[in-house]
Amino acid sequence: MNLTLFVWRQKNAKEKGRMERYEAHDVDPDMSFLEMLDVVNQDLIHNGKEPIAFDHDCREGICGTCSLTVNGIPHGEQKRTTVCQLHMRHFKDGDSIYIEPFRARAFPVVKDLVVDRQALDTVIQSGGYVSVSTGEAQDGNTLLIPRHDAEYSMDAAECIGCGACVAACPNGSAMLFVGAKVASLAQLPQGKVEAAQRVCVMTETMLDQGFGNCSNHYECEAACPKGISVKFIAKLNREYLKSLKE
Amino acid sequence: MFAKLFKNSVGRKLIMAATGLGMIGFVVMHLLGNFSIFLGPEGINVYAARLQSLGPLLWVARLGILAMAAFHITFGIWLTLENRRAKPEAYAVRKRQASTFGSETMIYSGLLLLTFVVFHLLHFTLRVIFPETSNLIDSAGRADVFTMVTESFRKFPVVVIYLAAMAVLFFHVGHGFKSLVQTIGLNNDKTLPLFGKASPLLALVLVLGYISIPMLILFGLVKG
Lengths: 246, 224
Ligand code: HEM
Ligand code: FES
Description:
The structure holds two protein chains of two kinds. Helices cover about 35% and strands about 10% of the residues of chain A. Chain A is an alpha+beta fold. Chain A has two domains: about 5-115, Ubiquitin-like (UB roll) (Roll); about 115-245, Fumarate Reductase Iron-sulfur Protein, Chain B, domain 2 (Orthogonal Bundle), CATH 1.10.1060. In chain A, the strands form two sheets. A five-stranded mixed sheet of chain A has the order 2-1-5-3-4. In chain A, strands 6-7 form a two-stranded antiparallel ribbon. In chain A, a hairpin with an 8-residue loop joins β1 and β2 (about 20-25). In chain A, α5 runs antiparallel to α7. The N and C termini of chain A lie far apart (about 60 Å). Chain B is mainly α. Helices cover about 75% and strands about 0% of the residues of chain B. Chain B has ten helices and no strands. The longest helix of chain B is centred in the N-terminal third of the chain and has 30 residues, at about 55-85. The N and C termini of chain B lie far apart (about 50 Å). The relative contact order of chain B is 0.13. The structure holds protoporphyrin IX containing FE (HEM) and FE2/S2 (inorganic) cluster. FE2/S2 (inorganic) cluster binds near residues 61 and 84 of chain A.
């Protein structure tokens, strides 16, 4: 099939970018979205033009590196799918596709579709860890954790840190990301020790890093390739309320 | 503790939620009180006289609502400005998947509500919009609130203003209620879809209750 692409091109962080039009010919429906871009890039290189820069690593939906906004939705319209796992069979011959970077003040564009998501790491470094001793491997079985708690924590831990929630949020808030981390750790005995301090520090670092506040639009959940629920934001809010008592 | 709330993103949201909940509480009580107009002058004039007889207590309540509104508006504007700064560049194409017209226009519906409240206070509290029918005394020597309200709502443009304001209230509370439930942390898998539906429903019931008053008066169905 043949497609028309409108792609955000931006030389570097300083220069202004703009949307540019490209034609993609003979696209195989079995290609992934990134493979389609690879082919377009081959063409560009062949014609002596600058290829389109985009982030990717595992290409199997687990690392959270790919970060394209496709037709106005981070990772595209396909539910629970990273853009590297999005296949061209979901598009029709003759479609126009708009490809833009993940947008937020906390995610400055590095080049074209590549953004700097270090701010998420800074938020994790501020409190997304457990510093109490959890013992050696064999000690894992000595501390029994109810199945519900384990499942709940693991559901939150599914977050791959791609930043689609931030990109989808009209406020550029990282609340789903922070909520998933806070909820995942607060549900486990090892994480409970520092729960109060963690929720305060991480939400404050979030603002410092230029993310917005949550207005409960829930665009984050809809865009999340791992289907992380906004119930974890409610959990974060509960954890914050608890921290006020301390 | 206040200082702690102010500097935290969730803390600021909690102030919005608490003041929003307080104002929803007020809006509900106000509606129940207003329904006394359907009992005629003996209903609403007595109700109004009782309220006035509370004296200092009435002022405590008024100042409480004023304080809530002040915090709500200040933080609403502050959060909105902060959130806009956090999303400086718009997408060329953006597809809304979960947010609603109401959720994305909270600041506009809020500011419109503020404008309406000012008008409403001038109309029925300070009574300067239609002074000739607003300062009468009934046969029992009480302020004649019944005549003030019914005379106003026989005027079509006045009814239009109130209908428009209630449409705005629908959008603000339609998102606001479910948002505050989430902010105070009450949600889980089951309650999320529940409050998602209950919130616009609550807003609808409130708004229908309010507009029944001017509508029934306009159509001549409320008799003294
Ligand atoms: C008078 C002017 C008002 C302004 C300027 C205003 C502004 C706002 C704004 C901007 C928000 C969204 C904040 C955010 O989540 O980012 C909001 C939320 C809210 N408003 Fe208002 N509002 C006003 C009046 C009211 C009234 C009269 C009520 C109640 C009937 C109300 C109830 C709420 C509730 C319940 C929320 C949700 C709080 C939360 O998200 O937790 N507001 N308001
Ligand atoms: S490239 Fe690893 S998740 Fe897409």
